[in-house]
Amino acid sequence: MGKVTIKDVAREAGVSISTVSNALNDVDVLNPETKSHVLRVAERLNYVPNLNGKLLKSGKTKMLGFFTTSVSGPYFYTLVESMSRECDRLGYGLNVFVTKDKQVIMSNILGGRVDGVIIFEELRIDDKDIAVMEKDKIKAVFLDRVVQNETMGSIIFDSYEAGYEATKYLISLGHRNIAYISGVDTMFDSVQRKKGYLAALREVQFPIDEDLILQGYFEEEGSYNAVKSFIHMHPGKVPDAFLAGNDLSAIGCIRALKSLGYEVPKDISVVGFDDIDIAQYFTPPLSTVRNQIARQGILVVDHLVRMIQKKEQGKVQKLAGELIVRGSSQVKVRSE
């Protein structure tokens, strides 16, 4: 037998095609007995509705799209898991598009394949693209990038404040030479955390040493290599503390320090960002700034769905970090 059609369901149920359509689309014109009879027949015949026709009529896909260049690592695992759960709760599906191809991204955003889009900041969607999206009234929420108009909003982690507070914390422990392991210089979070770090140093009039700003690319291996090569090249400049752009960078940093014979935190304190699951189980457990990743996922979906439902306009929401002190940082012991 070929694919079951709506005509087959109507014939089997002894009703018209429009009655089947109304039952399947939950249109409130049928008596409950007729509706449940039709749905039972459809289920027995394993009828799968033609989604395309349904979409053309309703103009709604009940799908949201998440556009990103990567989903690897604990940050994205938590974020996507949280977004998909919230989508499910609100009756939406989540399509994840992993690509760096601008044309693919824009054709999917503008092609009506999803009702609204969530865009991770690393995608280089420029002002011209945003203007096109705004003209087409595309509903969009940006993660970690400030965009605000009638149909677009943002969910931002306050990385500047988090970078500032984490640096102040290390200064309060008596650390003077604090190195920073930067992420990716084009990313909002990376830039803002570095600005916060520099602001805290300037506030107490510590000299800014560009040598102490390393590039770890938010990666464990990248940070491991950056720390090792820095200490080999500058043996007289070993920092009192490292502030790492994320927890993976902090873990790479600690591994590098251990491999060179340093003890963390006895010789050097290390602080990360995000509070990923492994942070509390690492040796030593990681002091870090907790980023409410799961909450970010919930807020981004809620805001997008409310814009789709025309219940609110685009807005910028900021999430604060929380300093979590564990075993990788301690008061600086001065040798007399």
TrEMBL record:
Mention one GO molecular function: DNA-binding transcription factor activity
Per UniProt, residues of the HTH lacI-type domain are: 4-58
Tell whether Protein transport is among the UniProt keywords.
no
Question: What's one Pfam family here?
Answer: Peripla_BP_3
Q: What keywords sit in the KW lines?
A: DNA-binding, Repressor, Transcription, Transcription regulation
Q: Which domain of life is it from?
A: Bacteria
PANTHER family membership: HTH-TYPE TRANSCRIPTIONAL REPRESSOR PURR-RELATED, LACI-RELATED TRANSCRIPTIONAL REPRESSOR
Q: What name goes with this protein?
A: Alanine racemase
